[in-house]
Design a protein that fits this description.
The structure holds 2 protein chains of 2 kinds. By secondary structure, chain A is of the alpha/beta class. Chain A folds into 3 domains: about 170 residues, Aconitase, domain 3, CATH 3.30.499.10; about 100 residues, no CATH class; about 120 residues, 2-Layer Sandwich (Aconitase, domain 3). Helix content of chain A is about 40%, strand content about 15%. In chain A, strands 12-11-10-13-14 form a 5-stranded parallel beta sheet, with helices on both faces. In chain A, strands 8-7-6-9 form a 4-stranded parallel beta sheet. By secondary structure, chain B is of the alpha/beta class. Helices cover about 15% and strands about 25% of the residues of chain B. Chain B contains 2 helices and 7 strands. In chain B, strands 1-5-4-3-2-6-7 form a 7-stranded mixed beta sheet. Chain B is globular and about 30 Å long. The mean pLDDT of chain B is about 95. Classes of the chains: A alpha/beta, B alpha/beta. Chains A and B meet through helix 2, helix 3, helix 7, helix 9 and helix 14 of A and strand 1, helix 1 and helix 2 of B.
Chain lengths: ~400, ~130
């Protein structure tokens, strides 16, 4: 890989120990994946924020970097933390967990990272432009920015994204290159998709089948950004899909080459099978929406259904601090609270310790959450659409 | 067999082979090194001190920290062999210092084989049991 004189200096340790260590990681990755050079990034999004995910080893790693005075060079946002950073005590998050989580947040803040913890940075003030090079790590946000916005990022590991933030560059390979953004499999969708959970089921099914390929979808007539977020998140979780194209809907779909691709068909049966497969339990103890973080439109839909109702069992809506603020002004939070539900900001069900909070069965409308909850939170899962889930809690 | 060097080092150990991809986050317990993903072919098995063989990584990008974490907790595999190592696993093994090579025809490695991994040169040698 070609390095500039300035970059050579970083490798020689002239910019300090932390820069040298992190830049070395980027150079190693660049060499492995055949990058020709480093390219500047417009923004970064760092995963590996919850204490539950990174544990003591990760916490010490971050504190070490922060204590040596490392600062980020570009706008950098964070993935969800393991708890609501303001309202954790009231929601019942364990105290010792909170103590460690706050250590992590402090280390990030000292590095100059915006301590907005969300898996939907694009809804909360970190929005890349078409063809902008970025280094993001949250797998659903990578999928959204690559596919729906047409920005360019690889699936960064938490530490490689942090390295890109502190060095301001990323190696030029993979999805930064136009020829690597071409579809490698065609998905023919022949079923009506109505609920966001239908898009989650489609994503879960396709991710399992195509693993790390780049799908080109046909037959999806319409989808809003909430539905595309659900689709991409599920595909990134059950497989490793970092980019997809949809005929007539996503910005690069008209531009890519899509001849002679292997074709996979998805119909009513595949979607039904996926719902059946993801349903491992019934009668949820808690229903959690907002994986990825709920948009204002999704919160308004929940508020509309809960207006004047009374919940028998808890309902959480996970979102970013910014969207929570907007929902507050619209009175949605109050409607949901009056029904007995909670708006939970900064965190989500997958990275929070819900199994330690006494919950055994969780209801979700997210294919991504349904994928992770059994392994990571030891939960039985009810996977259904918003109407059925809310009906069950009343 | 010769592959691509992902992270250097020389190790020897028994192979634990997964034909399915592995997502380290939510797939492997950071304290015990045991595979916890429901329905995964390696569910319930420990990767500690083994040569972990799988096609490629999948799932969450937090996986890099889980690889780093299992190394710090002394429950990491001795080495990793992939068909194709993607960024998440590469970042994790480089940071953790776990020897790793990819572009290996992993179908030739069987569960329980003795594997000698020289990731300084990108070479692996298999001794069937």
């Amino acid at each position: 890989m070609h390095l500039t004189k300035e970059e050579e200096k970083i490798l020689n340790g002239e910019k300090g120990e932390v820069m040298e260590r992190l830049f070395r990681l980027l150079v190693r990755l660049g060499d492995i994946y055949g990058a020709d050079k480093m390219i500047p990034v417009g923004s970064v999004q760092v995963a590996g924020v919850s204490y539950k995910s990174i544990g003591d080893p990760g916490t010490e790693f971050l504190e070490d970097i922060a204590s040596k005075g490392a600062k980020v060079k570009v706008l950098t946002y964070l993935n969800p933390a393991g708890m609501d950073l303001e309202n954790w005590e009231k929601l019942g998050f364990p105290k010792d967990f909170a103590k460690n989580q706050l250590r992590i947040m402090k280390a990030f803040k000292n590095m100059g990272i915006v301590v907005t913890s969300t898996c939907t940075p694009y809804l909360a003030g970190n929005l890349p432009r078409f063809r902008e090079h970025i280094a993001w790590s949250e797998s659903s946000a990578v999928s959204f920015s690559n596919s729906v916005i047409g920005a360019r990022t690889n699936r960064e590991g938490g530490p490689s994204a942090l390295a890109a933030a502190i060095c301001g560059v990323t190696p030029n390979y993979g999805l930064h290159l136009w020829e690597k953004r071409q579809p490698t499999v065609k998905i023919k969708v022949d079923v009506d998709l109505n609920f966001n959970s239908d898009f989650g089921a489609l994503g879960y099914y396709v991710g399992k089948q195509v693993k790390n390929k780049i799908p080109y979808f046909t037959g999806i007539k319409d989808a809003n950004t909430d539905q595309l977020k659900a689709l991409g998140a599920a595909m990134a979780a059950s497989g490793a899909v970092a980019l997809y194209h949809i005929k007539d809907l996503t910005p690069e779909a008209d531009l890519v080459k899509k001849d002679n691709l292997e074709t996979l068909s998805v119909g009513k049966n595949e979607i039904k099978e996926t719902y059946d497969k993801l349903n491992t339990g019934k009668n949820p103890d808690i229903v959690i929406f907002g994986c990825p973080h709920a948009s204002l439109r999704e919160i308004s839909a929940i508020a509309e259904r809960l207006e004047g109702k009374r919940l028998k069992k808890p309902v959480w809506v996970c979102t970013s601090r910014m969207i929570k603020e907007a929902a507050e002004r619209m009175g949605y939070n109050e409607i949901i609270a009056r029904a007995g539900g909670s708006i939970v900001a900064d965190t989500c069900m997958v990275v929070s310790p819900i199994e330690e909070m006494g919950y055994k069965t969780t209801g979700v409308n997210s294919g991504k959450a349904a994928n992770y909850l059994p392994g990571f939170c030891k939960q039985e899962v009810c996977f259904a659409n918003i109407d059925d889930l809310l009906e069950g809690q009343l | 067999m010769k592959g691509r060097i992902i992270s250097p080092g020389k190790v020897e150990g028994k192979a634990i082979v997964s034909t399915e991809p592995i997502g380290f986050y939510g797939g492997i317990d950071i304290e015990t090194g045991i595979v916890i993903e429901k329905g995964h072919p390696l569910e319930g098995k420990s990767v500690k001190d083994k040569i972990l063989v799988f096609p490629y990584g999948k799932g969450s990008t937090v996986g890099s920290y889980v690889i780093y974490g299992i190394k710090k907790n002394n429950v990491a595999p001795a080495g990793i062999v992939n068909k194709e190592t993607e960024t998440i696993v590469a970042t994790g093994v480089i940071l953790a210092g776990i020897p790793c090579v990819d572009q290996i025809d992993i179908e030739k490695i069987k569960d329980g084989d003795n594997v000698y991994l020289d990731a300084d040169k990108g070479i692996i040698k298999i001794q069937s049991v």
